[in-house]
Request: fold
Amino acid sequence: MAKGGMRMAFQVEAVIIFVLLTAMWLFVKQMRWTKKKVKITREMFSVLFLFYVLMVVYMTLEPFQFQIPLSIRPFEFDKRLFYELLHMADGYEYLQIYYSVGNMIMFMPLGFLLPILYPIFRKWYVILPVSLLTSLLIEMTQALFTLTRRGTVDDLFFNTLGAFIGYMLVSCIYRIISKKSRK
Reply:
């Protein structure tokens, strides 16, 4: 940024983000409910997915301090696979494992819930790029818009792997259910 240039930053309270996302979700749901018969199990998974999305937004963007892109902090994205992971906590391997497993667990519900809610996501070659792009959206948001976070390729890797594990779990469940229903 040029010396003496305009710096723009702002903080958004988590409650405001959650209220706006919930209001948008309720609007879409209301439109859906008026058009066709509602299946209660699908709606339960849909509510679960909403809470999952809200949790991911909170966990990845908190403390919600944003900037106009590149106005205060330069673009930061670590493109070296596992470099950040291996150097973030030298001597504290349990933190590195916690970080990796935490990112995988955070994205497992994406790979698990999307195939349940939408049949198009029941193929690995659909869920894999969707989970990668979802993770990339989060990482780019952190790199461009947040003041306290930065994007890393490690997160892309572990988030996508987590979504794929979630997908594999739901695929196994579908296979088991399918075999039992044939008997």
About this structure: The mean pLDDT is 83. The first strand starts at residue 9 and ends at 11.
